[in-house]
Design a protein that fits this description.
The strands form three sheets. The protein has an eight-stranded mixed sheet with strand order 5-4-3-6-2-1-7-8, covered by helices on one side. Helix content is 30%, strand content 25%. It folds into two domains: 2-190, 2-Layer Sandwich (Heat Shock Protein 90), CATH 3.30.565.10; 206-321, 2-Layer Sandwich (Ribosomal Protein S5, domain 2). It is built from ten helices and 15 strands. It has helices at 2-10, 16-29, 91-97, 147-152, 156-173, 197-205, 207-212, 219-222, 257-266, 306-321; strands spanning 34-40, 46-51, 100-106, 113-119, 122-129, 134-140, 178-183, 186-190, 214-215, 226-232, 245-249, 252-254, 279-285, 290-291, 302-303. The protein is elongated and about 60 Å long. It binds adenosine-5'-diphosphate (ADP) and magnesium ion. Residues 22, 25-26, 86, 91 line the site of magnesium ion (MG). Adenosine-5'-diphosphate (ADP) is lined by residues 22, 26-27, 29-30, 51, 53-56, 64, 70-72, 86-92, 135.
Length: 326
């Protein structure tokens, strides 16, 4: 299938953070209300992602490790239009191929769950085991069979910070989900999961930032095809790096230098040199406005009408930065 070939071509599990991203997305697709993440040695030594989502039935659990057997989506074209984050049924098999993996999963309707253990993609154990509804996946010895990948990784601290970035991003995009992150035995993140973005921001950036963040929710844009919502920092709450602006398109985490620049421009004259805004910017638009000719795992996105999207984002940000008459 051309669709699948196209997707498979660019598929890569680059580093621990990409593994965590895939596992988190699966938990969110399973409608988890709570996701707990544990990593050690930057994720190279150990990664665990545990959720209270729907779980996998005993009859389907093996399919999850078969390439393309479970794709939640049939056409490449609608990835930005659909509700699920997964779309190609490739993450789990790819991850299983480069690590030692254990999975314990259970659904509400079955008496017991399933435990699997695989090494380098080969099944070692497959038994029934009790668990509350949900899924836990544990990985160790990531890339131990792929020395070229291992060599490409940076220090455990650097890899841990990449993992943290991914978890923080999703915690901000899904404030209704309770996220926890434990790094080398330390709890570094614990969001309330109460659905309030500002409370998630409080956990991530602290009370000062959270209380001062400006609300992007703006009626003017709600009627148009492009809807912008989220929070951005006022000029007095800035950062010394560019990592604190998080963009999501239809709840999918994206990377966009152009959007970053569009937002920075909205602050021009308000921030001193070397200071950058922080914020969470949720862009909702119809799938038709997204150019799909960019591989989705790359997190890069192209809009069919870039200037319309940038202008909307910039206007939304600028309008909350401008002093409003009392
Ligand atoms: P997809 O592109 O469908 O997300 P993955 O390889 O990431 O493919 O996952 C394979 C399948 O395994 C999913 O389609 C889903 O049915 C199941 N699965 C994986 N992780 C979970 C989870 N945490 N909870 C429930 N089901 C899961
Ligand atoms: Mg997936």
């Amino acid at each position: 299938k051309a669709t699948i070939a196209r997707i498979a071509a660019g598929e890569v599990i680059e580093r621990p953070a990409s593994v965590v991203k895939e596992l988190l997305e699966n938990s969110l697709d399973a409608e988890a209300k709570r996701v707990d993440i544990v990593i050690r040695e930057g994720g190279i030594g150990y990664i665990e992602v545990s959720d209270d989502g729907c779980g996998i039935t005993s009859s389907e659990v093996l399919l999850a490790f078969e390439r393309h057997a479970t794709s939640k989506l049939s056409s490449f074209e609608d990835i930005y239009a659909i509700a699920s984050l997964g779309f190609r049924g490739e993450a789990l098999p790819s991850i299983a191929a480069v690590a030692d993996l254990e999975m314990l999963t259970a659904v509400r309707t079955e008496e017991s769950g399933t435990y699997l253990s695989l090494s380098g993609g080969e099944m070692l154990k497959h038994t029934r085991m009790a668990r509350a509804a949900g899924t836990s996946i544990r990985l160790s010895r990531l890339f131990s069979r792929v020395p070229a990948r291992l060599k490409f990784l940076k220090t455990p601290q650097h890899e841990a910070s990449k993992v943290t970035e991914v978890v923080v991003s999703y915690a901000l995009a899904y404030p209704e989900v309770k996220f926890s992150l434990n790094v080398d035995g330390r709890n570094t993140l614990n969001t309330p999961g109460n659905g309030k973005l500002r409370d998630a921001v409080l956990e991530v950036y602290g009370s000062d930032a959270a209380s001062k963040m400006l609300d992007l929710e703006n009626d003017t844009y709600r009627s148009s095809a492009i809807n912008i919502s989220g929070l951005v920092s006022p000029p007095e709450v800035s950062r010394s790096n560019r990592n604190s602006l998080h963009f999501f398109v239809n709840r999918r985490l994206i990377q966009s230098r152009a959007l970053q620049r569009a937002v920075e421009q909205a602050y021009s004259g308000l921030l001193t040199a070397g200071r950058y805004p922080m914020g969470v910017i949720n862009i909702r638009l119809s799938g038709a406005l997204v150019d799909v000719n960019i591989h989705p795992t790359k997190a890069e996105v192209k809009f069919s009408d870039e200037s319309a999207v940038f202008t909307s984002v910039q206007r939304a940000v600028r309008s909350v930065l401008v002093e409003k008459p009392p």
